[in-house]
Amino acid sequence: MCLCLKKHFFCHVLNKQTNTYFMKHSSFLLAITLLFASCGNNKFSHDASGTFEATEIILSSEVQGKVKELNIQEGDWLEKGQYLGYIDTTQLYLKKLQLETAIKALKAGKPSVEIQIASLREQLVKAEREYDRVLRLYKGGAATEKQLDDAKAQADVLQKSIDAQNSMLSKSVGSLDEEINTYKIQVEQVEDMLAKSRIYSPVDGRVLNKYIEASELAGAGTPLFKIADTRNLFIRIYVVGAQLEGIKLGQDVKVFTNESIKKSQYYRGAVAWISDKAEFTPKTIQTKDERENLVYAVKVAVKNADGLLKIGMYGDVNF
Q1: pLDDT in the model for residue 57
Q2: Cα–Cα distance between 24 and 19 in angstroms, integer?
Q3: φ and ψ at residue 306, rounded to 5 degrees
Q4: Poorest-confidence range of 34-38, 113-117, 222-226, 238-242?
Q5: What are the backbone dihedrals phi and psi of residue 155, each rounded to the nearest 5 degrees, phi first?
Q6: What percent of the chain has pLDDT over 70?
Q7: How far apart are CA 133 and CA 143, in angstroms?
Q8: The domain 48-55+229-318: what is its CATH number?
Q9: Residue 45 has pLDDT above 70, yes or no
Q10: Where are the domains of the chain?
Q11: How far is 113 from 169, CA to CA, in rounded Å?
C-alpha cells in the first residue's frame, strides 16, 4: 500500500512539471509553428518582380546669369513647351545692341562703286568722242598721227583708271561685307543665347525635383529641375534563360501591385525591351528561380492612367 502511494505521488509530480514546461514555452512553440507555416506559404507566385521606373530628364541652364523667374513647384504637371521663366538677359541684350550699331556704322561707311567712278566714266566718254573726232580728221588729212595717238592714249588711260578704281573699291566693299557678316553671325549667336535664356518644359511630365530658386545665380550646366513622364512608366524585371522562350517584344503582360496585404491590383503592360546580354542577378531583385546566377533584363511599359503607380514602387509581372 505504501509503495502504491509513492508511485502515485511521483506521477503527479512528473505531470505537474511537464505541464509547467509547456505552459512556459507555448509562445515560443507557437511562433516556430507559424514561421514554418508562413515559409511554406510564401512561395513566389509571379514570373518576375522589379521596380517601376520612368525616363527622367534633368534640365540644365545653357547660359550664365541670375534666375529671374522659375514658376514651378515639385509635383507640378508640365506640358511640353510650357514657358516656365527666364535667366537674366540684360548683358546679352546690350551686346546685341552694340553689334547692331557696329553693323549700321559699317554699312554707312561702305563706298558706292558707281558713284566713285562716275566722274571717270564721264571723262572716258569725252575722251572716246575726242578720239573719234580726231580719227575722222586724220582720215581727211586734217590731223596728224601724233594727235590721233594722243587721243587714243588719253582714252586708254581713263579706262585703266576706271578698272583700277573699280577693283580697289570692290575689294574694299567686299572686305566691309565680310566684316558685316561676321557681326551678323555674332548677333545670331546672341539671339540664340537669348532664346536659351528662356526656360521651357522639354517634355510632358511631372516635376520630381527643383534644384534652384529665383534670384539664385546659375552657370552654364547648372541643373534647374528634374522632370519625368509619370503617366508612362516601365517596370524593369529580370528573367532566367528558360523564361526567354515565352517572351517577345510587344507581348501583353499583367503587372501586379500590392495595395494591401490581402489586396492586389493589376495593370496591362507590354514588353518594350529585352536585353541581349546576360548579367548576374542583382541583389535586390527576386526571380522565379533564384538558383540561376545569370539573368536577362526586361523592360515592361505600363500606362499609369490612375496615377497610383509611383517611381520605385515594387511590382510583379506575369507573362
Answers
A1: 97
A2: 9
A3: -90, -5
A4: 34-38
A5: -70, -40
A6: 81
A7: 10
A8: 2.40.30.170
A9: yes
A10: 48-55+229-318, 58-84+202-228, 90-196
A11: 6
Spatial distance between the Cα atoms of 142 and 272, rounded to a whole number of angstroms: 103
Please state the φ and ψ torsions of residue 231, each to the nearest 5 degrees. -85, -15
Residue 171 confidence class, pLDDT cut points 50, 70, 90: confident
What is the predicted pLDDT for the residue at 165? Answer: 83
CATH architecture of 58-84+202-228: Beta Barrel (2.40)
Cell, residue 159: 579706262
221/256 Cα distance (integer angstroms): 39
Name the phi and psi angles at 315, rounded to 5. Answer: -150, 160
221: alpha, beta or left? (left if phi > 0; alpha if psi -120 to 50): left
Q: What residue ranges in the chain does DSSP mark as E strands?
A: 48-53, 56-60, 65-70, 77-78, 83-87, 198-200, 205-210, 217-218, 223-228, 232-239, 252-258, 264-280, 294-303, 314-318
Q: Would you state the pLDDT for residue 218?
A: 95
Same topology between domain 48-55+229-318 and domain 58-84+202-228: no
Average pLDDT (237-265) is: 83
